[in-house]
Amino acid sequence: MKDDIVLQATGLKKSYDQGDKTIRVLDGIDLEIYRGERVAIVGLSGSGKSTLLHLLAGLDNADSGQVFIGGEDIANLDEKSLCQVRNKTLGFVYQFHYLMSEFTAIENVAMPLMIGNVNKKTANATASEVLGKVGLKNRLEHRPGQLSGGERQRVAIARALVTRPQCVLADEPTGNLDEKTAEEVNQLLLDLSHELDMSFVIVTHNHDLANRMDRILVLHNGLIEAQAQ
């Protein structure tokens, strides 16, 4: 149902100039992500998966087409309003954790709440709760340099979840982890999507992870050429 759509794209096109050539990366993407749905985006390297994710997040501008976040056409939003919509509606997990090294785990996770004008005491309490959900209740005061790779990525996941967004966008979230740790983090993402009833859109080369999602979107030649459930 339309009311259950948390993220939508219609006719997205994106090209880049490379010397005297124009490289068309996306050639008219249509998709809808529903509340609580888990979707994998797969495709060859260079097929435009990360570009698509950035457009869906409003982190880059399409040449043409529309993106709706929580029902809002982001083309109609100024930068401040777009940041507010992203802060409220979306969470992000990247291949690299992008934690701030000078801040503790709890400070890193509380940051999106404080940006959203939540007071520090409430932000820290919520951050502590979410860090507990990702298995880091004993690492609240540790800085990134004191954490393992898997722990740092769990902090990044907690940061994405702390605002209770409608949808989490993840770009190869376990690409920098060893196989065992990657599986633990992948399972954590799947478990949390069920527990918190959030949508997850994950760009991945991991076929096992993709096959455990509700849908798989295959990106090829700038288009979604196949959808599997």
Give the topology.
Layout: E1 5-18, E2 21-34, E3 38-42, H1 49-56, E4 64-69, E5 72-73, H2 79-89, E6 90-93, H3 105-115, H4 120-133, H5 149-161, E7 167-171, H6 179-196, E8 199-203, H7 207-211, E9 215-220, E10 223-228
Parallel strand pairs: 3-8, 3-9, 6-7, 7-8
Antiparallel strand pairs: 1-2, 1-4, 4-5, 9-10
Helix pairs in contact: 3-4, 3-5, 4-5, 5-6
Could you walk me through the main structural features you see in this protein, from its secondary elements to its overall organization?
By secondary structure, the chain is α/β, with parallel strands linked by helices. The chain has a single domain (2-228), classed as Rossmann fold (3-Layer(aba) Sandwich). The chain is built from seven helices and ten strands. It has helices at 49-56, 79-89, 105-115, 120-133, 149-161, 179-196, 207-211, and strands at residues 5-18, 21-34, 38-42, 64-69, 72-73, 90-93, 167-171, 199-203, 215-220, 223-228. The protein has a six-stranded mixed β-sheet with strand order 6-7-8-3-9-10, with helices on both faces. Strands 2-1-4-5 form a four-stranded antiparallel β-sheet, with helices on one face. The radius of gyration is 17 Å and the shape is globular. The mean pLDDT is 87.
